[in-house]
Each structure stands twice: as structure tokens, then as C-alpha cells.
């Protein structure tokens, strides 16, 4: 979409000429120990030091001056977004399954799924038809959304630069903030909504499956320790690699622990199996209880994990990571404590984690993006195990 004075193409050319790029996207995450999530619209941009004024002017242009009047351009955006989501469903169904499970387990997950999961695809499918029938209503809604999102009151600016550049650009920040509306037109609301916690199969035309199962470990009483990072990485690289990929024939199998929400997730990628993979996930607790590991293997697991935690970052990535930690209330003291817990991980931690991970077996929710035949066979073997949802 363009502005009053610039077409869509001209605006993009100006951004490319004067900056290193500008992106706008939603950010939503659980905050450990709190029900309400952290939910923001993030605008990221970068420029040379001498172009800071241009960067802030163009960000303001993107946020406040873009006009929602070009019906055909907007329909093109919608169609492209729908096509990307459909391709993601076919080629990256594990991500769709993960988002769907998260939406069943916490508020932040529900919000994210509405803007990037199957619910979002359904919204785009309906919106594509609505563009032709009610463009005036859509254009008006877009303007209302903008007015509800933008305000000086809710704005947080994070800048990354050397000290000299920060001093010189401070005036541009003030100028940018002065151009924003003083208050949002809508009141801040609390959310308390999730998808139903049933097992679900999202059926698509495919010859392979994406199989997931997840549960909230904090609900089981688990208290976060840095050892969980080491354990989840080791489970992915050994148990799931051997059973899901090597023996099961899937292209990949792994697990992830979201330490903000407490959700522990198992996922497989391009998997010929369905129920068999879920049984492997359920056996993880017993795998940990029976685990034998020499000091050399444990040391390698710890080194691999600490390398991920303290990975090298360029300045823009460092600045963004700092912003996210601020939004989620993660202090440097906590980060150091997690490092120390990672480095002191022992075999005892693996065995103790088995009880926590059994929450997935006992109370977990399963979501699979799978073929109709495999889902039908699974529901015959385990009567109505999956609720079926057709996506394509």
C-alpha cells in the first residue's frame, strides 16, 4: 500500500535506498509466572548513522501515512499470504501443529495461532472473498486497527548503536514520539481464552505426516532449571533421532521446551507414522530413568547447549535480544543463574526430569498434520482418538 504522495513501489524503493530495511510484525509470548502474555507490534529497522533521521521518518510513514485505499493491491497481499500459509501447511506442518498445541495450552499461544496458524489461514480464506464484496468495510476496519494500535503511551523505543551515534539520534526519537497519537482509542484488555484441549488431526493432501504432542510442565509443579535445556537437546539428539528418524523413517524428530510458558513439545517432520510416533514420545520418561551416560557424553551435551545459549550475535541481534528480555522481565542475574545450572547439569538431573516430562504422556494434547488415510486408520485403532479438521 502506498501513501498520499508515494506509490507502493516508490515507498519500497525509498526504504531500500535510505535504510537497511524496515519490518513490522506481531510479537506475543508468555511471561513466566503470569497469566497475561506480552503482546506487541514490533517495528524493526536499521540504517547508517547518518541516515537515522530518514529511518525514523520512514517508520512513521509506514505506520501512519500508508493509505488503505488500493483494493487490488490489498487483495494481492491477502492472496500471497494465503498461498504462503498453504505452502507452510504442506511443507512445514510441524510448525502448524506446534502453534495449534500451544493455542490449546496458553493464552499467548492462542493469540499467535490466530495470527499465524490454521485459524489465520481460515481468516485469510474468508477475507479473500470479502475483499470483493465489502471493500469499504475492510478499509474502515484497517484504519480502526491502526488507531487502536498506535500511541505514544504504549510505545517503547530500543536503539542499538555506539555512544556517539546514540547521543546524536536522541532528538530523532523525541520527534518520532511526538508524531504519535497520545493515547490509544481502545482500553487495554485481559485475555483468557484457549482452543479446546482435544487431540486434533489437521487433514491435508499429503503422503507424510507431522506429529506433535505437548503439555505444560509448570502445571505439573516443575520448577525451571537450566538443566532442562541440556536434557531437551540430548533427548532430541539421541532418543528422538534414533527412534523417530532412524527407526521410524521420519525426516526429523525433536523436542522443545518453552521456558516462558512451561510448554514442552515433541514434534516430527515428514513422518510416515502417526500413533507409533506418539508412543515414542510417551516413552521419553522411561528413557530418561534408564539413561546411562559417561562424563565425556555429558560434557559434550553441556558444551553444545551453552553454545546455543551464548551464541555469537551481530549488534542488531544483540539489541533485539535485549529488548525481548526486557519485555519478558528476564534479568542478567537470572541469565547467569541459568548458565551456572547448565554447566552443573548431572545425570541425576536427567533422571529427575523424567517425572516432569511424564506430564506429556499423562496429560498431553496431540496434534497432527496428516493424510486422511493415516488419520482414519488411527481413529479405528484408537477409537475417535483425533478430532478431524480439514484445512485444504
TrEMBL record:
Q: Name one GO cellular component term.
A: mitochondrion
Q: Which SUPFAM superfamilies match?
A: LuxS/MPP-like metallohydrolase
Gene Ontology BP annotations: protein processing
Q: List residues of the Peptidase M16C associated domain.
A: 1-127
The molecular function terms of the Gene Ontology recorded here are:
metal ion binding; metalloendopeptidase activity
Protein name listed in UniProt:
Peptidase M16C associated domain-containing protein
Q: Which organism is it from?
A: Gossypium barbadense (Sea Island cotton)
Amino acid at each position: 500500500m502506498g501513501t498520499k504522495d508515494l506509490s507502493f513501489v516508490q515507498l519500497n524503493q525509498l526504504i531500500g535506498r535510505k535504510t537497511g530495511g524496515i519490518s513490522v510484525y506481531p510479537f506475543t509470548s508468555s511471561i513466566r509466572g503470569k497469566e497475561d502474555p506480552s503482546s506487541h507490534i514490533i517495528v524493526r529497522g536499521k540504517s547508517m548513522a547518518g541516515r537515522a533521521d530518514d529511518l525514523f521518518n520512514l517508520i512513521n510513514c509506514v505506520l501512519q501515512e500508508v493509505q488503505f485505499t488500493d483494493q487490488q493491491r490489498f487483495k494481492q497481499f491477502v492472496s500471497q499470504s494465503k498461498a504462503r500459509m498453504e505452502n507452510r501447511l504442506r511443507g512445514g506442518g510441524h510448525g502448524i501443529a506446534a502453534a495449534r498445541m500451544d493455542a490449546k495450552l496458553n493464552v499467548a499461544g492462542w493469540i499467535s495461532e490466530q495470527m499465524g496458524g490454521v485459524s489465520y489461514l481460515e481468516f485469510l480464506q474468508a477475507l479473500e472473498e470479502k475483499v470483493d464484496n465489502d471493500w469499504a468495510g475492510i478499509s474502515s476496519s484497517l484504519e480502526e486497527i491502526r488507531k487502536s494500535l498506535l500511541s505514544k503511551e504504549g510505545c517503547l523505543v530500543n536503539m542499538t548503536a555506539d555512544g556517539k551515534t546514540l547521543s546524536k539520534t536522541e532528538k530523532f526519537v523525541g520527534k518520532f514520539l511526538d508524531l504519535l497519537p497520545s493515547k490509544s482509542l481502545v482500553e487495554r484488555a485481559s485475555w483468557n481464552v484457549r482452543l479446546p484441549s482435544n487431540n486434533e488431526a489437521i487433514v491435508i493432501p499429503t503422503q507424510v505426516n507431522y506429529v506433535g504432542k505437548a503439555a505444560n510442565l509448570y502445571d505439573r509443579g516443575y520448577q525451571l532449571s537450566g538443566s532442562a535445556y541440556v536434557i531437551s537437546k540430548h533427548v532430541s539428539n539421541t532418543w528422538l533421532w534414533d527412534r523417530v528418524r532412524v527407526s521410524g523413517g521420519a525426516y526429523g524428530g525433536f523436542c522443545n521446551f518453552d521456558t516462558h510458558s512451561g510448554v514442552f513439545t515433541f514434534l516430527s517432520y515428514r513422518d510416515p507414522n502417526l500413533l507409533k510416533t506418539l508412543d515414542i514420545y510417551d516413552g521419553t520418561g522411561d528413557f530418561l530413568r534408564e539413561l546411562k551416560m559417561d562424563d565425556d557424553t555429558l560434557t559434550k551435551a553441556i558444551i553444545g547447549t551453552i553454545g546455543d545459549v551464548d551464541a555469537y550475535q551481530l549488534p542488531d541481534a544483540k539489541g533485539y535480544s535485549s529488548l525481548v528480555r526486557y519485555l519478558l522481565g528476564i534479568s542478567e542475574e537470572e541469565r547467569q543463574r541459568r548458565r551456572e545450572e547448565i554447566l552443573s547439569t548431572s545425570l541425576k538431573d536427567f533422571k529427575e526430569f523424567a517425572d516432569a516430562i511424564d506430564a506429556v504422556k499423562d496429560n498431553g494434547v496431540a496434534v497432527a498434520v496428516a493424510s486422511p488415510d493415516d488419520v482414519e486408520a488411527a481413529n479405528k485403532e484408537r477409537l475417535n482418538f483425533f478430532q478431524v479438521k480439514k484445512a485444504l
